[in-house]
Design goal:
This is Thioredoxin. GO terms for molecular function: protein-disulfide reductase activity. Keywords: Disulfide bond. The N and C termini lie far apart (about 45 Å). By secondary structure, this protein is of the alpha/beta class. The chain contains five helices and five strands; from the N terminus they run E-H-E-H-E-H-E-E-H-H. The longest helix is centred in the N-terminal third of the chain and has 16 residues, at about 30-45. The chain is about 45% helix and about 25% strand. Strand 2 (about 20-25), helix 2 (about 30-45) and strand 3 form a beta-alpha-beta unit. It has one domain: Glutaredoxin (3-Layer(aba) Sandwich), CATH 3.40.30.10. The chain has a five-stranded mixed sheet with strand order 1-3-2-4-5.
Length: about 120
């Protein structure tokens, strides 16, 4: 699967309807973004079961602000609709593959239990 453009109109549906979604926040003027783009694209062809979305921070300023993007590129990973990874900076190909495997191997029952514990702590 090739990468797809994500907008404020398609984000919620994309994240909600897919098990794993990787989002690359980028801009055309950003050299590290341009360097990471082909790595992200190549990985998307290796993992057709994952949605690889690109968010142009210039065109989608509202989304960039909502996710508090302060440095690009920033890569986010969602699993089951939950953000499980967010980090600025371009990754090398092997590092991106390692991240994908880590996201695949997450025990989502543990993630949900951790979230519930955090919410209970906030409620106190």
């Amino acid at each position: 699967m090739a990468t797809c453009e994500i907008t404020k109109d398609t984000l919620q549906e994309t994240v909600s309807n897919n098990d794993i979604v990787l989002l690359d926040f980028w801009a055309k003027w950003c050299p590290p973004c341009r360097a990471f783009g082909p790595i992200f694209e190549k990985s998307s062809t290796r993992h057709p079961d994952i949605v690889f979305g690109k968010i142009d921070t210039e065109a989608q300023r509202e989304l960039a602000a909502a996710f508090q993007i302060s440095s690009i590129p920033t890569l986010m990973a969602f699993r089951g609709g939950i953000i499980v990874f967010s980090q600025p900076g371009a990754l090398r190909g092997p590092d991106l593959e390692e991240l994908i495997e880590a996201v695949r191997e997450l025990d989502m029952s543990e993630v949900h239990a951790d979230l519930a514990a955090q919410e209970a702590e906030v409620a106190l």
